[in-house]
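To assess whether ligand presence alters the predicted conformation, the chain was also submitted together with flavin-adenine dinucleotide. Input:
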Amino acid sequence: MPQTTEQADILIIGAGPAGAVAAGLLRKQGRQVTVIEREQFPRFSIGESLLPQSMEYIEAAGMLRDVVEAGFQYKNGAAFACNGKYTEFDFRDKFSPGWGSTYQVQRASFDKVLADAAARAGADVRYRQEVVAVDVTGARPRVSVKDAEGAVREIEASFLLDASGFGRILPRLLKLESPSNFPVRGAIFTHVEDRIPMGSNFDRQKIRVTVHPEHPDVWYWTIPFSNGRCSLGVVAHNDFLSRCTGTETERLRAIVAEDPGLSTLLAGAVWDTPARQIVGYSANVSSLWGNRFALLGNAGEFLDPVFSSGVTIAFKSASLASECLAREAAGETVDWQRDYAVPLKAGVDTFRAYVEAWYQGSFQKIIFHEGGSPEVHRMISSILAGYAWDTRNPFVAEPKRRLAVLAEICS
Ligand code: FAD
Protein backbone atom coordinates (compact mmCIF):
# COMPACT_ATOMS: atom_id res chain seq x y z
CA MET A 1 0.00 0.00 0.00
CA PRO A 2 1.43 3.45 -0.82
CA GLN A 3 2.38 5.34 2.31
CA THR A 4 0.58 8.62 2.98
CA THR A 5 2.73 11.74 3.09
CA GLU A 6 3.04 13.16 6.59
CA GLN A 7 2.02 16.81 6.92
CA ALA A 8 4.12 19.12 9.12
CA ASP A 9 4.21 22.82 9.84
CA ILE A 10 7.88 23.84 10.25
CA LEU A 11 10.34 21.11 9.33
CA ILE A 12 13.94 21.53 10.50
CA ILE A 13 16.80 19.40 9.18
CA GLY A 14 19.42 18.92 11.94
CA ALA A 15 19.26 19.29 15.73
CA GLY A 16 22.62 21.09 16.14
CA PRO A 17 22.74 24.61 17.63
CA ALA A 18 20.95 26.30 14.70
CA GLY A 19 18.18 23.69 14.51
CA ALA A 20 17.59 23.40 18.27
CA VAL A 21 17.46 27.16 18.90
CA ALA A 22 15.20 27.69 15.86
CA ALA A 23 12.93 24.95 17.26
CA GLY A 24 12.85 26.64 20.68
CA LEU A 25 12.09 30.07 19.22
CA LEU A 26 9.33 28.72 16.95
CA ARG A 27 7.73 26.74 19.77
CA LYS A 28 7.53 30.02 21.69
CA GLN A 29 5.46 31.34 18.77
CA GLY A 30 3.19 28.31 19.11
CA ARG A 31 4.31 26.76 15.82
CA GLN A 32 4.30 23.01 15.35
CA VAL A 33 7.95 21.98 14.84
CA THR A 34 9.41 18.72 13.56
CA VAL A 35 13.20 18.23 13.74
CA ILE A 36 14.87 15.46 11.72
CA GLU A 37 18.35 14.54 13.02
CA ARG A 38 20.63 11.98 11.39
CA GLU A 39 22.60 11.02 14.52
CA GLN A 40 21.71 9.79 17.98
CA PHE A 41 22.61 12.45 20.60
CA PRO A 42 24.97 12.84 22.39
CA ARG A 43 27.40 12.88 19.48
CA PHE A 44 30.77 14.61 19.04
CA SER A 45 30.95 17.96 17.26
CA ILE A 46 33.66 20.57 16.87
CA GLY A 47 32.98 24.20 17.86
CA GLU A 48 33.37 24.38 21.61
CA SER A 49 34.09 27.98 22.54
CA LEU A 50 30.98 30.16 22.57
CA LEU A 51 30.78 33.94 22.32
CA PRO A 52 28.78 36.08 24.80
CA GLN A 53 26.49 37.36 22.01
CA SER A 54 25.19 33.78 21.66
CA MET A 55 23.72 33.92 25.19
CA GLU A 56 21.07 36.37 23.98
CA TYR A 57 19.64 33.74 21.62
CA ILE A 58 19.88 30.91 24.16
CA GLU A 59 17.91 33.13 26.52
CA ALA A 60 15.33 34.10 23.86
CA ALA A 61 14.81 30.42 23.01
CA GLY A 62 14.01 29.69 26.68
CA MET A 63 17.11 27.50 27.14
CA LEU A 64 19.25 29.66 29.42
CA ARG A 65 18.58 27.77 32.62
CA ASP A 66 19.32 24.44 30.94
CA VAL A 67 22.68 25.73 29.73
CA VAL A 68 23.62 27.41 33.02
CA GLU A 69 22.75 24.32 35.05
CA ALA A 70 24.73 21.98 32.79
CA GLY A 71 27.98 23.04 34.52
CA PHE A 72 30.04 24.09 31.52
CA GLN A 73 33.27 26.08 31.88
CA TYR A 74 32.60 29.81 32.44
CA LYS A 75 34.27 31.97 29.78
CA ASN A 76 34.88 35.71 29.95
CA GLY A 77 37.40 36.43 27.22
CA ALA A 78 40.08 35.50 24.73
CA ALA A 79 43.87 35.40 25.16
CA PHE A 80 46.42 35.52 22.37
CA ALA A 81 50.06 34.42 22.57
CA CYS A 82 52.86 34.69 20.02
CA ASN A 83 56.61 34.23 20.49
CA GLY A 84 56.55 35.24 24.16
CA LYS A 85 54.07 38.09 23.60
CA TYR A 86 50.72 37.82 25.34
CA THR A 87 47.56 39.88 25.21
CA GLU A 88 44.01 39.32 26.37
CA PHE A 89 40.50 40.68 26.00
CA ASP A 90 37.98 40.60 28.83
CA PHE A 91 34.56 40.45 27.18
CA ARG A 92 32.91 42.09 30.19
CA ASP A 93 34.83 45.24 29.24
CA LYS A 94 33.43 45.97 25.80
CA PHE A 95 31.73 48.66 23.72
CA SER A 96 28.38 46.95 23.00
CA PRO A 97 25.81 46.34 25.74
CA GLY A 98 24.77 42.76 26.48
CA TRP A 99 26.26 39.57 27.85
CA GLY A 100 29.99 39.71 28.64
CA SER A 101 30.46 36.06 29.52
CA THR A 102 29.52 32.67 28.18
CA TYR A 103 30.77 29.05 28.26
CA GLN A 104 33.27 26.64 26.79
CA VAL A 105 31.31 23.51 26.08
CA GLN A 106 31.77 19.89 25.16
CA ARG A 107 29.47 19.94 22.16
CA ALA A 108 28.23 16.38 22.71
CA SER A 109 26.61 17.58 25.97
CA PHE A 110 25.78 21.13 24.86
CA ASP A 111 23.93 20.10 21.71
CA LYS A 112 21.98 17.51 23.70
CA VAL A 113 21.06 20.12 26.33
CA LEU A 114 19.65 22.40 23.60
CA ALA A 115 17.87 19.62 21.69
CA ASP A 116 16.34 18.24 24.90
CA ALA A 117 15.15 21.74 25.82
CA ALA A 118 13.54 22.09 22.36
CA ALA A 119 11.82 18.71 22.83
CA ARG A 120 10.56 19.71 26.28
CA ALA A 121 9.16 22.88 24.73
CA GLY A 122 7.11 20.65 22.42
CA ALA A 123 9.28 20.19 19.33
CA ASP A 124 9.08 16.70 17.83
CA VAL A 125 12.80 15.83 17.66
CA ARG A 126 13.45 12.57 15.79
CA TYR A 127 16.93 10.99 15.95
CA ARG A 128 18.56 8.58 13.52
CA GLN A 129 16.45 9.95 10.69
CA GLU A 130 18.29 11.25 7.66
CA VAL A 131 16.97 13.60 5.02
CA VAL A 132 18.00 12.06 1.71
CA ALA A 133 16.01 13.99 -0.90
CA VAL A 134 14.19 17.30 -1.17
CA ASP A 135 11.64 18.77 -3.55
CA VAL A 136 11.01 22.50 -3.22
CA THR A 137 9.23 23.03 -6.55
CA GLY A 138 5.68 22.79 -5.19
CA ALA A 139 3.64 25.02 -2.90
CA ARG A 140 4.88 23.03 0.10
CA PRO A 141 8.45 21.72 0.38
CA ARG A 142 8.71 17.95 0.55
CA VAL A 143 11.53 15.84 1.99
CA SER A 144 12.33 12.12 1.93
CA VAL A 145 13.50 10.81 5.29
CA LYS A 146 15.34 7.52 5.75
CA ASP A 147 15.13 5.86 9.16
CA ALA A 148 17.74 3.63 10.85
CA GLU A 149 16.21 0.53 9.25
CA GLY A 150 16.47 2.04 5.77
CA ALA A 151 12.76 2.73 5.31
CA VAL A 152 12.02 5.99 3.49
CA ARG A 153 8.96 8.18 4.09
CA GLU A 154 7.83 11.56 2.83
CA ILE A 155 7.09 14.65 4.87
CA GLU A 156 5.56 17.84 3.52
CA ALA A 157 5.83 21.10 5.43
CA SER A 158 4.70 24.68 5.24
CA PHE A 159 8.32 25.82 5.59
CA LEU A 160 11.69 24.04 5.58
CA LEU A 161 14.72 25.20 7.59
CA ASP A 162 18.00 23.52 6.66
CA ALA A 163 20.17 23.40 9.81
CA SER A 164 22.20 20.41 8.63
CA GLY A 165 25.53 22.17 9.28
CA PHE A 166 28.50 20.58 7.54
CA GLY A 167 25.96 18.07 6.07
CA ARG A 168 24.87 21.01 3.83
CA ILE A 169 21.84 19.09 2.61
CA LEU A 170 19.96 21.74 0.64
CA PRO A 171 23.09 23.39 -0.81
CA ARG A 172 24.15 19.98 -2.13
CA LEU A 173 20.77 18.68 -3.29
CA LEU A 174 19.65 22.00 -4.80
CA LYS A 175 23.10 22.87 -6.21
CA LEU A 176 23.35 26.09 -4.21
CA GLU A 177 26.99 25.56 -3.23
CA SER A 178 29.46 28.25 -4.20
CA PRO A 179 33.18 28.31 -3.43
CA SER A 180 34.48 30.08 -0.33
CA ASN A 181 37.00 32.84 -0.98
CA PHE A 182 39.25 31.44 1.76
CA PRO A 183 42.08 29.02 0.89
CA VAL A 184 41.69 25.37 1.87
CA ARG A 185 42.70 25.18 5.51
CA GLY A 186 42.34 22.26 7.86
CA ALA A 187 42.41 21.50 11.56
CA ILE A 188 43.79 18.62 13.64
CA PHE A 189 42.30 18.45 17.12
CA THR A 190 41.72 16.36 20.21
CA HIS A 191 40.73 16.54 23.87
CA VAL A 192 43.46 16.07 26.50
CA GLU A 193 43.58 15.89 30.26
CA ASP A 194 45.66 19.04 30.30
CA ARG A 195 47.23 19.05 33.81
CA ILE A 196 48.21 22.70 33.30
CA PRO A 197 49.54 23.71 36.72
CA MET A 198 47.73 26.38 38.72
CA GLY A 199 49.76 29.59 38.66
CA SER A 200 51.05 29.14 35.12
CA ASN A 201 50.18 31.91 32.67
CA PHE A 202 46.95 30.23 31.63
CA ASP A 203 43.47 31.56 32.33
CA ARG A 204 40.93 28.74 32.23
CA GLN A 205 38.17 31.32 31.75
CA LYS A 206 39.50 32.29 28.33
CA ILE A 207 40.12 30.57 25.03
CA ARG A 208 43.84 30.83 24.26
CA VAL A 209 44.91 31.30 20.65
CA THR A 210 48.63 30.73 20.11
CA VAL A 211 50.25 31.91 16.88
CA HIS A 212 52.90 29.55 15.48
CA PRO A 213 56.37 31.05 16.17
CA GLU A 214 57.47 30.90 12.51
CA HIS A 215 54.25 30.73 10.50
CA PRO A 216 51.85 33.56 11.46
CA ASP A 217 49.00 32.01 9.46
CA VAL A 218 49.18 28.84 11.59
CA TRP A 219 47.51 28.95 15.01
CA TYR A 220 46.55 26.65 17.86
CA TRP A 221 43.52 26.74 20.13
CA THR A 222 43.35 25.64 23.75
CA ILE A 223 39.80 25.65 25.10
CA PRO A 224 39.68 24.58 28.76
CA PHE A 225 36.63 22.68 30.00
CA SER A 226 35.27 22.53 33.54
CA ASN A 227 36.58 18.99 34.17
CA GLY A 228 40.35 19.53 33.94
CA ARG A 229 40.37 18.75 30.25
CA CYS A 230 41.08 20.93 27.26
CA SER A 231 40.17 20.98 23.61
CA LEU A 232 43.40 21.40 21.69
CA GLY A 233 43.78 21.95 17.97
CA VAL A 234 45.87 23.48 15.23
CA VAL A 235 44.62 25.27 12.10
CA ALA A 236 46.83 25.64 9.05
CA HIS A 237 46.91 25.60 5.30
CA ASN A 238 46.47 22.06 4.10
CA ASP A 239 50.04 21.99 2.69
CA PHE A 240 51.44 22.76 6.13
CA LEU A 241 49.44 19.95 7.76
CA SER A 242 50.40 17.49 5.01
CA ARG A 243 54.14 17.82 5.73
CA CYS A 244 53.65 15.95 9.06
CA THR A 245 53.27 12.21 8.87
CA GLY A 246 51.98 9.54 11.23
CA THR A 247 48.67 9.27 13.02
CA GLU A 248 46.61 12.41 13.59
CA THR A 249 47.74 12.37 17.24
CA GLU A 250 51.42 12.14 16.24
CA ARG A 251 51.00 14.96 13.74
CA LEU A 252 49.27 17.21 16.28
CA ARG A 253 51.92 16.45 18.93
CA ALA A 254 54.70 17.28 16.47
CA ILE A 255 53.11 20.63 15.55
CA VAL A 256 52.43 21.51 19.22
CA ALA A 257 56.11 20.77 19.96
CA GLU A 258 57.05 23.56 17.51
CA ASP A 259 55.77 26.21 19.94
CA PRO A 260 57.89 26.40 23.11
CA GLY A 261 55.22 28.27 25.16
CA LEU A 262 52.44 25.84 24.34
CA SER A 263 54.69 22.80 24.82
CA THR A 264 55.62 24.05 28.28
CA LEU A 265 51.97 24.57 29.22
CA LEU A 266 51.04 21.09 28.02
CA ALA A 267 54.15 19.32 29.31
CA GLY A 268 52.12 17.19 31.75
CA ALA A 269 49.12 16.61 29.46
CA VAL A 270 47.70 13.12 29.06
CA TRP A 271 46.91 12.49 25.40
CA ASP A 272 44.17 9.93 25.91
CA THR A 273 41.90 10.64 22.92
CA PRO A 274 42.82 9.96 19.28
CA ALA A 275 43.07 13.23 17.33
CA ARG A 276 40.90 13.88 14.27
CA GLN A 277 41.34 15.99 11.18
CA ILE A 278 38.91 18.14 9.22
CA VAL A 279 39.95 19.84 5.99
CA GLY A 280 38.23 22.32 3.68
CA TYR A 281 35.44 23.38 6.03
CA SER A 282 35.02 26.93 4.64
CA ALA A 283 31.92 27.00 2.47
CA ASN A 284 29.46 29.37 0.86
CA VAL A 285 26.16 29.31 -1.02
CA SER A 286 24.65 31.27 -3.93
CA SER A 287 21.48 32.00 -1.91
CA LEU A 288 20.47 31.65 1.74
CA TRP A 289 16.78 31.10 0.93
CA GLY A 290 14.40 29.94 -1.78
CA ASN A 291 10.84 28.78 -2.32
CA ARG A 292 9.55 28.15 1.25
CA PHE A 293 12.99 27.31 2.62
CA ALA A 294 15.95 29.00 4.32
CA LEU A 295 19.46 27.88 5.21
CA LEU A 296 20.62 28.30 8.80
CA GLY A 297 24.09 28.21 10.40
CA ASN A 298 26.74 26.20 8.65
CA ALA A 299 24.29 24.96 6.03
CA GLY A 300 24.69 28.51 4.70
CA GLU A 301 28.15 29.94 5.02
CA PHE A 302 31.10 28.94 7.21
CA LEU A 303 34.07 31.29 7.36
CA ASP A 304 36.86 30.14 9.64
CA PRO A 305 37.20 29.02 13.26
CA VAL A 306 39.70 31.68 14.42
CA PHE A 307 37.20 33.91 16.23
CA SER A 308 34.84 31.14 17.41
CA SER A 309 31.96 32.79 15.56
CA GLY A 310 30.27 29.66 14.12
CA VAL A 311 27.70 28.90 16.82
CA THR A 312 26.87 32.60 17.27
CA ILE A 313 26.16 32.93 13.54
CA ALA A 314 24.10 29.71 13.69
CA PHE A 315 21.98 31.19 16.50
CA LYS A 316 21.65 34.56 14.79
CA SER A 317 20.35 32.84 11.64
CA ALA A 318 17.82 30.87 13.72
CA SER A 319 16.67 34.09 15.37
CA LEU A 320 16.28 36.03 12.09
CA ALA A 321 14.48 33.15 10.35
CA SER A 322 12.04 32.65 13.21
CA GLU A 323 11.28 36.41 13.22
CA CYS A 324 10.53 36.24 9.49
CA LEU A 325 8.25 33.22 10.03
CA ALA A 326 6.41 35.06 12.84
CA ARG A 327 5.78 38.01 10.54
CA GLU A 328 4.53 35.74 7.75
CA ALA A 329 2.19 34.02 10.22
CA ALA A 330 0.87 37.45 11.19
CA GLY A 331 -0.07 38.07 7.53
CA GLU A 332 2.88 40.31 6.61
CA THR A 333 4.78 39.84 3.38
CA VAL A 334 8.37 38.88 4.08
CA ASP A 335 11.16 39.55 1.63
CA TRP A 336 13.63 36.82 2.64
CA GLN A 337 16.51 38.54 0.89
CA ARG A 338 15.94 41.89 2.60
CA ASP A 339 14.72 40.56 5.96
CA TYR A 340 16.85 37.43 6.38
CA ALA A 341 19.85 37.16 4.06
CA VAL A 342 21.00 40.80 4.12
CA PRO A 343 20.93 41.29 7.92
CA LEU A 344 22.55 37.89 8.51
CA LYS A 345 25.33 38.59 6.03
CA ALA A 346 26.02 42.00 7.55
CA GLY A 347 27.48 40.39 10.69
CA VAL A 348 29.08 37.53 8.77
CA ASP A 349 30.86 40.11 6.60
CA THR A 350 32.09 41.91 9.72
CA PHE A 351 33.64 38.66 10.94
CA ARG A 352 35.00 38.07 7.44
CA ALA A 353 36.92 41.37 7.56
CA TYR A 354 38.55 40.31 10.86
CA VAL A 355 39.34 36.79 9.62
CA GLU A 356 41.00 38.25 6.51
CA ALA A 357 42.95 40.74 8.61
CA TRP A 358 44.04 37.91 10.94
CA TYR A 359 45.55 35.85 8.11
CA GLN A 360 47.04 38.95 6.43
CA GLY A 361 48.76 39.71 9.74
CA SER A 362 47.32 43.20 10.32
CA PHE A 363 44.93 42.13 13.08
CA GLN A 364 47.75 40.34 14.91
CA LYS A 365 49.80 43.53 14.67
CA ILE A 366 46.90 45.43 16.26
CA ILE A 367 46.21 43.07 19.16
CA PHE A 368 49.87 42.60 20.14
CA HIS A 369 50.58 46.33 19.92
CA GLU A 370 51.23 47.79 23.36
CA GLY A 371 49.78 51.05 24.68
CA GLY A 372 46.74 51.40 22.40
CA SER A 373 43.60 53.32 23.28
CA PRO A 374 41.35 51.64 25.89
CA GLU A 375 38.25 52.72 23.91
CA VAL A 376 39.51 51.00 20.76
CA HIS A 377 40.36 47.93 22.85
CA ARG A 378 36.72 47.87 24.06
CA MET A 379 35.42 48.14 20.48
CA ILE A 380 37.56 45.20 19.37
CA SER A 381 36.59 43.30 22.51
CA SER A 382 32.95 43.69 21.41
CA ILE A 383 33.60 42.08 18.06
CA LEU A 384 35.58 39.23 19.63
CA ALA A 385 32.59 38.77 21.97
CA GLY A 386 30.38 38.29 18.91
CA TYR A 387 28.66 41.69 18.67
CA ALA A 388 29.31 41.87 14.94
CA TRP A 389 25.84 43.26 14.16
CA ASP A 390 26.12 46.32 16.42
CA THR A 391 26.74 49.06 13.87
CA ARG A 392 27.07 51.68 16.62
CA ASN A 393 30.55 50.20 16.99
CA PRO A 394 32.75 52.00 14.42
CA PHE A 395 34.76 48.78 14.01
CA VAL A 396 31.52 47.06 12.89
CA ALA A 397 30.28 49.94 10.75
CA GLU A 398 33.51 50.23 8.76
CA PRO A 399 35.65 47.22 9.64
CA LYS A 400 38.07 47.24 6.71
CA ARG A 401 38.87 50.95 6.79
CA ARG A 402 39.18 51.05 10.58
CA LEU A 403 41.42 47.98 10.64
CA ALA A 404 43.67 49.35 7.88
CA VAL A 405 44.09 52.71 9.67
CA LEU A 406 44.74 51.07 13.02
CA ALA A 407 47.25 48.60 11.59
CA GLU A 408 49.10 51.54 10.03
CA ILE A 409 49.23 53.32 13.40
CA CYS A 410 50.45 50.12 15.12
CA SER A 411 53.25 49.76 12.55
P1 FAD B 1 26.01 21.51 13.15
O1 FAD B 1 26.51 21.78 14.49
O2 FAD B 1 26.93 20.86 12.16
O3 FAD B 1 24.69 20.61 13.29
C1 FAD B 1 24.08 20.04 12.14
C2 FAD B 1 23.27 18.81 12.52
O4 FAD B 1 22.60 18.35 11.35
C3 FAD B 1 24.14 17.66 12.99
O5 FAD B 1 23.68 17.18 14.24
C4 FAD B 1 24.02 16.62 11.89
O6 FAD B 1 24.04 15.29 12.38
C5 FAD B 1 22.65 16.94 11.30
N1 FAD B 1 22.52 16.50 9.90
C6 FAD B 1 23.44 16.62 8.92
N2 FAD B 1 22.96 16.09 7.76
C7 FAD B 1 21.70 15.64 8.04
C8 FAD B 1 20.70 14.98 7.27
N3 FAD B 1 20.89 14.68 5.98
N4 FAD B 1 19.52 14.65 7.87
C9 FAD B 1 19.32 14.94 9.18
N5 FAD B 1 20.25 15.55 9.96
C10 FAD B 1 21.42 15.91 9.39
N6 FAD B 1 32.20 27.56 16.37
C11 FAD B 1 32.16 28.22 17.54
O7 FAD B 1 31.16 28.89 17.83
N7 FAD B 1 33.20 28.15 18.43
C12 FAD B 1 34.34 27.43 18.17
O8 FAD B 1 35.25 27.38 18.99
C13 FAD B 1 34.43 26.77 16.90
N8 FAD B 1 35.53 26.04 16.57
C14 FAD B 1 35.56 25.40 15.36
C15 FAD B 1 36.73 24.71 14.98
C16 FAD B 1 36.79 24.09 13.73
C17 FAD B 1 38.05 23.38 13.33
C18 FAD B 1 35.69 24.15 12.85
C19 FAD B 1 35.73 23.50 11.52
C20 FAD B 1 34.53 24.82 13.22
C21 FAD B 1 34.46 25.45 14.47
N9 FAD B 1 33.32 26.15 14.84
C22 FAD B 1 33.30 26.84 16.03
C23 FAD B 1 32.12 26.21 13.99
C24 FAD B 1 31.01 25.30 14.51
O9 FAD B 1 31.46 23.97 14.50
C25 FAD B 1 29.78 25.43 13.63
O10 FAD B 1 29.64 26.74 13.17
C26 FAD B 1 28.49 25.04 14.33
O11 FAD B 1 28.54 23.73 14.80
C27 FAD B 1 27.32 25.22 13.36
O12 FAD B 1 26.12 24.77 13.94
P2 FAD B 1 24.94 24.23 13.01
O13 FAD B 1 23.78 24.01 13.90
O14 FAD B 1 24.79 25.10 11.83
O15 FAD B 1 25.49 22.83 12.42
